[in-house]
Backbone:
């Protein structure tokens, strides 16, 4: 059934100039109604801006705003200012006089249109003016540059009148072909959308001056035949070309545009979900209808042709809402529909509750009242939404759940649509991936990550007064947790209230409160510290440290950052939060008076004053993460994880270490910060480094290798020597923390380590000597040897090292490219008890080959499914396990004693060793040879000792 006065023009017999004139008149009637509504919501100065803009584009006059030069393109098609407009201009500039141009002068400005929310239900005081300036083709780059400059000057002038204006130059022929001068609105999505932008233009634009859209005159049922239909109108002179502006049609929208539009709205929705929700849902509706999409602009045009000209029903926002409402009701998704209604209500921002209601009875308020009555909203619902500016954490958290669920659903819908329609170009897929990471960074929950609860829901969730409480955890006896409560609550008064937030650890709770703006600089905090040592002084400084390290609002994250894995940018380490390390010890007086001040091995008791660390990290995706370390090895686990999370090629994050405990806070923080910076510097300089640190009774070694930073914790001196003696595939320098092993000789010799040489260190005591060898790869060998004299101790070692060097040289090419290993000797001084304080270089012992010595050579070979087999050669005589079995060393010992009967009792030494018969792929390093030598010598000398005791009886 047709509506009264419905126009259905037909190319053959139902079209004439009168019908087209009537259609244009209907569009202009609606246009005038919208323009009046727009003016109603503007101040007098803003109204003046909108009124005068057509005149400023029509003439170039030095006294008018926006003047560039007399050659700037000017003249609006079909426009002549009336007396009222000229009077308005003269009120602005009294000396201005308008001179009409006679004849048929060029009019390169084809049309002026106002885009955006002006004239709609959502118009607000802060709404900006987006204006399309449609101009003739081929006006030249110079003239175009002047026109662009004119627009910039007019934007600046409008700002002085309290109006935020943005001008966009459009060349219609190029626009139809997809050519864009720049973004086409201050709320634009980039260059990937054409038809959806055109859809928005046709249903929202307000014509100000110039030619009217040719699209107005084409019936919806002829949209697919747009080119032929408009060509007929022009060729048969139903219309004149100089009266209409052709920006194209909406017969088909490529599926990729829905992906692009959805991506853009999702991107904006992360920070302003209410603002984006309506457009996001409209995109979903359009995409769900693909390929038979019924654009709202076509509904709008169909209504005009049918003479349904109700301004309220054709309001752009009402039309968007109605289409979404139909879609969600059809799907039975009532919760989503309620969220859309709340979004529209908050977007319009006209408070309707009894307490917030103003005396204003404008058309927007009346229309919104009709809608809310239709929705069945009561006073309680209106009051809740009207108080959004006062919403605090609890209400924000409830709303956040629905908004985040909606954004995540939209992302999944877009991703699926892109796959199903093969609608995602490489650029779209990149944007989808980046957007997925934005959503993940903003909303994904994981251990240690601080949840952002207020993504544009409420303007301010800060509380005036809060109470912070540590209390026993009834669900886990023996443990405690922290709670944050509204108001200033006294002792045990808080037990009758539910906390805003509860966390196991204090720093997680404080970081959550700071990141979400629950605590700001004006919040007053009452403290009930429970069994902790937390003081108001420490609490104040903890919050100050968070505010300095995480200044809000955080800067925007770039796509470049999101295309890469997240990396730490800011790290705040807080030591001993709520703990006083000295108060934990019964020997407090000893600790307080000691001269030893290293915080990691404090006092004669060697106590570690770093009991806990709370690490707050801001990464490159704007995620804030909190991790706590406690227990005996908290510091080293924190250091290891910090280095591993950094990665090898990432820039060093800004590290801040703070401690506010009652005793030695500054010294503790400084020691930890120095430690972290030292190890970071080593990692950046040489990935092969090892770092040795002593913490209380434990020695820790960090291996800074190319893959992961590995931590080894050692108990006692013997374990340390074993670790340092482990074979290495390449040179691995060892650096000691300045406070490490201060009671040992090791720091002196380890500091002298060099690659590709063998370094022998010795220290003489009364009855024995300490022998150390640093091999070519930095591995350490140690032996305590009975001391007869210095020469008898060093010569056997040098003979052995000479034979090792000779074997190595035999395997090297003769071209000299690989030099043999040098051997250096050093003495640790002073001799005797106490700690060595210096190292002096000593000459390499001279081995006189003419002097006779007892030669003992050992060859070790692999044996199938058995322990390696040993063969010994004593003065060229062979003794093997194959022949003597487990009696090998007893037999060799008797042979040696027989040779020594006139020489007394002294130790036997291995003078040469071959391990090439083992299955190892690489030649054995010196430390491996020395370990085998030591084991063989021990077995031989035990055999000698047994034979000597036997001979005495």
Residues:
């Amino acid at each position: 059934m047709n509506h009264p006065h419905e126009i259905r023009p037909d190319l053959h017999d139902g079209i004439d100039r009168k019908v087209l004139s009537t259609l244009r008149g209907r569009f202009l009637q609606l246009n005038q109604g919208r323009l009046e509504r727009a003016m109603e919501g503007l101040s007098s100065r803003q109204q003046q801006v909108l009124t005068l803009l057509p005149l400023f584009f029509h003439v170039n006059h030095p006294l008018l705003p926006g003047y560039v030069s007399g050659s700037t393109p000017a003249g609006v098609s079909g426009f002549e200012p009336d007396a009222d407009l000229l009077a308005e201009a003269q009120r602005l500039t009294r000396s201005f006089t308008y001179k009409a141009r006679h004849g048929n002068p060029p009019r390169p400005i084809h049309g002026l249109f106002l885009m955006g929310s002006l004239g709609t239900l959502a118009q607000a005081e802060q709404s900006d003016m987006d204006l399309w300036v449609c101009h003739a083709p081929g006006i030249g780059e110079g003239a175009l540059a002047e026109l662009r400059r004119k627009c910039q000057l007019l934007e600046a002038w409008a700002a002085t009148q309290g109006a935020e204006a943005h001008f966009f130059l459009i060349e219609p022929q190029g626009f139809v072909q997809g050519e864009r001068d720049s973004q086409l609105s201050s709320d634009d999505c980039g260059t990937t959308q054409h038809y959806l932008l055109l859809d928005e233009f046709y249903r929202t634009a307000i014509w100000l001056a110039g030619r009217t859209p040719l699209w107005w005159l084409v019936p919806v049922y002829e949209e697919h035949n747009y080119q032929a239909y408009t060509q007929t109108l022009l060729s048969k002179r139903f219309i004149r070309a100089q009266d209409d502006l052709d920006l194209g049609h909406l017969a088909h929208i490529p599926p990729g545009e829905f992906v692009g539009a959805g991506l853009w709205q999702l991107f904006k929705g992360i920070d302003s979900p209410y603002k984006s929700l309506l457009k996001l849902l409209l995109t979903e509706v359009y995409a769900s209808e693909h390929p038979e999409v019924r654009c709202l602009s076509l509904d709008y045009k169909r209504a005009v042709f049918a003479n349904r000209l109700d301004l309220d029903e054709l309001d752009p926002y009402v039309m968007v809402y109605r289409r979404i409402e139909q879609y969600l009701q059809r799907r039975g998704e009532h919760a989503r529909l309620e969220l859309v209604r709340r979004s529209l209500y908050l977007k319009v921002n006209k408070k309707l509750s009894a307490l917030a209601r103003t005396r204003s009875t404008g058309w927007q308020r009346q229309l919104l009242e009709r809608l809310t009555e239709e929705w069945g909203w009561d006073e309680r619902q209106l009051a809740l939404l009207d108080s959004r500016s006062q919403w605090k954490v609890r209400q924000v958290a409830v709303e956040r759940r629905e908004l985040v669920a909606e954004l995540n659903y939209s992302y999944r819908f877009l991703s699926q649509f892109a796959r199903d329609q093969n609608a995602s170009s490489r650029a779209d897929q990149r944007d989808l991936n980046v957007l997925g990471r934005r959503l993940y960074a903003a909303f994904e929950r994981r251990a240690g990550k601080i949840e952002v609860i207020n993504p544009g829901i409420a303007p301010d969730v800060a509380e005036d007064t809060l109470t912070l409480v540590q209390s026993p955890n009834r669900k886990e006896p023996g443990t405690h947790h922290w709670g944050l409560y509204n108001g200033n609550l006294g002792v045990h008064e808080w037990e009758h209230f539910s906390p805003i937030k509860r966390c196991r650890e204090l720093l997680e709770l404080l970081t959550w409160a700071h990141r979400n703006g629950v605590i700001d600089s004006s919040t007053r905090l009452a403290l009930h510290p429970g069994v902790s040592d937390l003081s108001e002084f420490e609490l104040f400084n903890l919050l100050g440290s968070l505010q300095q390290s995480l200044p809000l609002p955080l800067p925007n994250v770039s796509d470049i950052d999101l295309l890469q894995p997240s990396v730490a940018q800011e790290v705040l380490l807080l030591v001993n939060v709520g703990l006083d390390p000295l108060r934990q010890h019964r020997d407090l007086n000893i600790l307080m008076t000691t001269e030893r001040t290293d915080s990691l091995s404090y006092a004669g008791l060697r106590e570690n004053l770093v009991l806990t660390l709370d690490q707050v990290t801001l990464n490159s995706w704007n995620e804030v993460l909190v991790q706590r370390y406690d227990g005996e090895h908290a510091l080293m686990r924190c250091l290891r994880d910090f280095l591993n999370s950094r990665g090898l090629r990432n820039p060093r994050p800004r590290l801040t270490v703070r401690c506010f405990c009652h005793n030695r806070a500054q010294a503790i923080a400084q020691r930890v910060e120095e430690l972290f910076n030292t190890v970071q510097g080593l990692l950046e300089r040489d990935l092969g480094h090892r770092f040795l640190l002593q913490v209380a009774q434990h020695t820790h070694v960090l291996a800074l290798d190319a893959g992961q930073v590995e931590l080894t914790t050692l108990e006692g001196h013997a374990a340390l020597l074993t670790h340092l003696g482990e074979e290495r595939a390449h040179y691995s320098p060892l650096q000691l923390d300045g406070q490490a092993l201060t009671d040992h000789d090791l720091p002196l010799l380890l500091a002298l380590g060099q690659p590709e040489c063998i370094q022998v260190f010795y220290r003489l005591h009364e009855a024995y000597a300490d022998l150390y060898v640093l091999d070519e790869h930095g591995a350490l060998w140690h032996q305590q040897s009975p001391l007869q004299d210095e020469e008898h101790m060093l010569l056997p070692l040098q003979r052995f090292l000479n034979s090792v060097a000779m074997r190595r040289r035999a395997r090297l090419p003769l071209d000299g490219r690989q030099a043999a290993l040098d051997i250096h000797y050093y003495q640790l001084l002073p001799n005797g008890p106490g700690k060595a304080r210096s190292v002096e270089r000593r000459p390499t012992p001279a081995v006189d080959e003419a002097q006779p010595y007892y030669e003992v050579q050992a060859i070790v070979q692999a044996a199938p499914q058995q322990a390696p087999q040993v063969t010994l050669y004593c003065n060229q005589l062979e003794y093997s396990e194959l022949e003597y079995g487990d009696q090998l060393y007893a037999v060799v010992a008797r042979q040696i004693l027989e040779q020594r009967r006139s020489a007394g009792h002294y130790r036997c030494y291995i003078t040469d060793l071959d391990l090439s018969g083992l299955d190892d792929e690489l030649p054995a390093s010196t430390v491996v040879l020395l370990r085998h030598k030591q084991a063989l010598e021990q077995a031989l000398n035990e055999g000698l000792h047994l034979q000597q005791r036997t001979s005495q009886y």
